[in-house]
Design brief:
single chain, 237 residues, mainly alpha, 8 helices, 0% strand, globular
């Protein structure tokens, strides 16, 4: 019985991300017309990551239903590959990047919104869309973690993958600045070279911390669930 609600949730979340992405891309903002387009913003990259991740989740659910009761070993192998991809994306991309976007955006926004989200953007992006990009990511990913157990890779390889993503995005931002002469985020215009190095290093470290947090949270949720099930079985016996 628990499988059907989780399937429905994933489909609903996937459709919501499609809606957010379509509405965001429909906005005629000057920044979308410059070098890198929407892809220079981590928020947009995160939205794509979340949409692809939940797309893989839905595909995994469908494959699981189609192979249920079947005896095809090839179908079983394909399903295991999908599950492995789903779990890897959750561990390395969806959770740490999603958490980073939400916490970093709202932290800077509350401190000084002009550092990350200038007031000019209010005339382009409605409040509901802003929350769709920077708020709902967190409850959606926590719902997924609570409803499905994900097998994390070894911590070493997980951290290598997360750090690679973080360093890759930092290099991408630097390249955009090299080509255009403009930093993606206003914050970077206000700090010196040494502060930039510290900031970029902190970004990579923070994403790595969120990876470890996701691993611990996933283990805590599902170890507690297993203990609860075993306790109920013991009482029944």
């Amino acid at each position: 019985m628990a499988l059907i609600p989780s399937q429905v949730l994933r489909v609903a979340i996937l459709l919501s991300y499609f809606s957010i992405l379509c509405n965001y891309k429909a906005i005629d903002m000057p920044a979308h017309q410059t070098y890198g387009g929407s892809w220079k913003f981590l928020t947009f990259i995160d939205l794509v990551i979340q949409a692809v991740f939940f797309g893989v989740c839905v595909l995994t659910d469908l494959s699981s239903l189609l192979t249920k009761g079947g005896e095809s070993q090839e179908q079983e192998r394909q399903l295991k590959k999908l599950i492995s991809l789903r779990d890897w994306m959750m561990a390395v991309l969806a959770f740490p990047v999603g958490m980073f976007v939400v916490t970093m955006f709202w932290g800077l926004y509350l401190y000084d919104r002009d550092l990350v989200y200038p007031r000019l953007l209010d005339s382009f992006i409605p409040q509901w869309l802003n929350h769709g990009m920077h708020t709902t990511v967190l409850p959606f990913i926590l719902i997924e973690m609570r409803t499905t157990h994900h097998q994390y890779p070894s911590r070493l390889w997980g951290l290598v993958a997360v750090c690679s993503f973080g360093v890759g995005y930092v290099l991408w931002m630097c390249w955009v600045h090299h080509v255009t002469g403009v930093w993606v985020y206003p914050l970077l215009d206000r700090i010196g070279p040494v502060a930039k190095v510290i900031f970029f290093s902190s970004v990579t470290i923070l994403i790595s911390i969120f990876y470890v947090l996701g691993e611990i949270l996933n283990s805590y949720i599902w170890d507690s669930s297993r203990c609860g099930v075993e306790s109920e079985k013991a009482k029944a016996d």
